[in-house]
Amino acid sequence: MTKETIKAQVRKAFDHRVSIRVYNDKDIPKEDMDYILDMAWLSPSSIGLEPWRFIVLDRKAISKIATDLKPVSWGAKSQLDTASHFVLLLAEKKVRYDSQAVKDSLYRKELDKEIIASRLLRYEDFQKNHKTMANSDRLLWEWAAKQTYIALANMMTAASFIGIDSCPIEGFQDEPVNAILVKHGLIDPNKEKLASMLALGYRANTPKHKRVRKDRHTVVTWVD
Questions:
Q1: Which of 73, 80, 104, 154 is disulfide-compatible with 66, CB 3.0–4.6 A?
Q2: What does the angle CA 202 – CA 206 – CA 207 come to, to the nearest 5 degrees?
Q3: What's the pLDDT score for residue 110?
Q4: pTM metric for this prediction
Q5: Distance from first CA to last CA of the chain, Å, rounded?
Q6: Which of the 8 DSSP states describes residue 43?
Q7: Where are the transmembrane segments (predicted)?
Q8: 154 with 40: CB under 8 angstroms?
Q9: Cα separations in angstroms, 148 against 88, 184, 185, 197
Q10: Over its length of 224 residues, how does the chain's per-residue pLDDT go in tens digits?
Q11: Three-class SS of residue 216?
């Protein structure tokens, strides 16, 4: 396979992907969902932290929480009724440089103690002096939440490659939705919080509107 063939396939996947809000009743095979989720699992993150967790809901699981979610999730109403699967993207709350989450991210790389100590000092400097977020729970969570969007984009692209449609969802009320997920035993409110949701399935109809983007030259700038 040539480089040009690969580029054409990638472009085709991007051209196919639009945000689909209503899906047909065809279920995504488990092997295809596993492939999509692998792309999230393998995604890069700042300092290799992987400050995320991905909860996967099939139609049966969606139906158990849809009634609760709809009143506080204006951006997901039709998707909750029709999607084959939902992925809830959670971001960790406690990702300070001296947290167990950060230490665990280094331990799993099997680094020696001196390297770990050196990196923790670097992360402390990064959080205190470069991003000034070390003492803000809100800023720390937002930093973690940003990482989940890398995984979100990779899942959407991977899905489009194999003809599966998707819709990223941020249209929900923060506190009520997280409270519902706690009530249903899906998240630990002390450790994590919902960043976004992803609906997946097969489009019920051809999209009514043509995809539109800003003129390329207005968003891409080359510097000589």
A1: 80
A2: 100
A3: 80
A4: 0.95
A5: 33
A6: -
A7: none
A8: yes
A9: 10, 22, 21, 10
A10: 899 999 999 999 999 999 999 999 999 999 999 999 999 999 999 999 999 999 999 999 999 999 999 999 999 999 999 999 999 999 999 999 999 999 999 988 888 999 999 999 999 999 999 999 999 999 999 999 999 999 999 999 999 999 999 999 999 999 999 999 999 999 999 999 999 999 999 999 988 888 889 999 999 999 99
A11: helix
117-121: long-range contacts, CB 8 A cutoff, minimum separation 24:
119/47
- Residue 124's SS3 state is helix
Amino acid symbol at 22: V
In sequence order, which residues have a C-beta less than 8 Å from that of residue 183 and are 6 or more positions away? 68
Please report, for the chain, how many H helices and E strands are present, in that order.
Answer: 9, 4
Cα-based distances in Å from 120 to 95, 105, 114, 143? 12, 11, 10, 17
Length reported for the chain: 224
Q: What is the pLDDT of residue 216?
A: 95
| Cβ neighbours of residue 106 closer than 8 Å, sequence gap 6 or more | 115, 116, 119, 120
CA angle 206, 24, 77 (to 5 degrees): 95
- Give the phi and the psi of residue 10 in degrees, each rounded to 5: -65, -45
